[in-house]
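Final report, closing paragraph on structural work. Over the funding period we assembled a curated collection of sequence-structure pairs, and we close with a single example.
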Amino acid sequence: MIDEEVKKRIIALCNKPVALGGWLGLPYEQDGCLKFAVKFYREMGIEATEEALKEARNFVKVTDPEFGDIVVFQNAPFAQYHIGVMLDRFKAIQCGEVGLTNGVGKIRVGEYPFIIDLVKGFYRHRSCF
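Its predicted structure, as stored:
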């Protein structure tokens, strides 16, 4: 279970531009979606690695996403494989190249059919049950 104070702190980081100490607008770098997800999980107090995320090690597939769940996209026009971290049931934060958010930004996963069609699944870390 995620501590409410930790969740509030992370939500604040997700809503604040990088110039003000938040995460919005952090620039994209190679494998940025994985690196950002690792940063997000470390802020939650969960040790995760890029390899563990790629292999879904310690993650369980879920049908109803919640805060902290990983959303996996496949075969998108912008990348063969991409992940984001859910902020609630419908919104995710992710680090994408040009096209989506050009760095760290938020997207609405359930709002656009073309995005829903790219979702392979949602995954929750075992420590979040």
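The radius of gyration is 13 Å. The CA atoms of residues 72 and 121 lie 6 Å apart. We thank the funder for supporting this effort.
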